């Protein structure tokens, strides 16, 4: 999984940052920033939830892009 | 086309503590016409999918100061200000000056202060007579103190501005002259506040906005916008949160089993808070009024015609069975609770993270401090605040 976010549409809800703090962060203005583009597998479910819950749909989850070190087969 | 008058909105509440019965029948189509307190008709969009998409749709303008837009109240220009452009890009320019004060870091830095205020208020409540009235003892003073600190408003002024704000938010409660007087007094009060902060700036959001406004090289904020946003933040900063603390707690206390569950596992507090928000038990969605500047198709194939006045039903979306399992049940363990109580899209509530934090602190502190706290009145007899923007319970007697 690879995760990206669009800070131009982010509404600074802070929801993703509260949900998965190691992956999502905010810049000085509160706009979303990704800390870990290829997060560990145990975080995937929460990241999907964060993406579904983003009030501006600013988070994209690219399921079929595995971590470079240990690529996962597409589901 | 039906010739009957569309049903009245806000819908009537169903006692003792449930969401309006009418909500059980709103999902047959994507939208329904409703009659507002003014007598005007608007289109209420009710399905989650549509409500969520339309909150982010630029074809719905939030500028409702138009002659052909439905009015919420005929006695009050609620949410209408012809000198403010509430649509992007103008709106976004100002909003981004404000949102930076609401990052997770800034909110978490405020948590110890909120905890301290909650502890102090409950100490006072414990020392006073029983039953106590939860709104005045706790639900209102807590968010008022917090928003005052954040904005740099003297908390001693609260008796003054609360009266003005009540009038400002009247739908049918007060006659138009009285509403006008309150609006003027509130505007003047905030003008005086801004002037005094100009002379003696502090470490607060209003002082920060004044600095942006007065910087000659910075054209992001004009004087009217400074005034308007200070007013909006002060009002939105406590009215909704206070109603949710009081009324949400009343709903919870009515369910002793849920109180016990939380007391056995405090990690349930955040999801319980979200679930109480989802029921939207303290108000309707009259504040979401918008105006269609183009035709907009809905999920059932119908079309919102250009020129229609539209309300986005948060409470309707929140009980849509397509999204929420057993939507009329209170489930404090709901894992995925993306309710619409704070809206969505570019107007998503600026203060949502703050409100959530306050609600979590309030709920946990109250249930820890008074393990046996309960309602001291029959649930079905709690009076609702009708005729105003918020419709939470006006009196919530509790004993412990
Ligand atoms: C439980 C408490 C609260 C609820 C249910 C609530 C609900 C909402 C909703 C539904 C909207 C969007 C309205 C729309 O799109 O038409 C909104 C906007 C807003 N809220 Fe809140 N709110 C709460 C607390 C707060 C707090 C604590 C603050 C301030 C500190 C705040 C400040 C604002 C502001 C400034 C907006 C306008 C945002 C914009 O237009 O971009 N709210 N709120
Ligand atoms: S959930 Fe969405 S809107 Fe909220 S901070 Fe994250 S990216 Fe921004």
TrEMBL record, chain A:
<keyword id="KW-0411">Iron-sulfur</keyword>
<keyword id="KW-0408">Iron</keyword>
<keyword id="KW-0813">Transport</keyword>
<keyword id="KW-0479">Metal-binding</keyword>
<keyword id="KW-0249">Electron transport</keyword>
<keyword id="KW-0003">3Fe-4S</keyword>
<dbReference type="Pfam" id="PF13370">
    <property type="entry name" value="Fer4_13"/>
</dbReference>
<dbReference type="InterPro" id="IPR051269">
    <property type="entry name" value="Fe-S_cluster_ET"/>
</dbReference>
<feature type="region of interest" description="Disordered">
    <location>
        <begin position="54"/>
        <end position="75"/>
    </location>
</feature>
<protein>
    <submittedName>
        <fullName>Ferredoxin</fullName>
    </submittedName>
</protein>
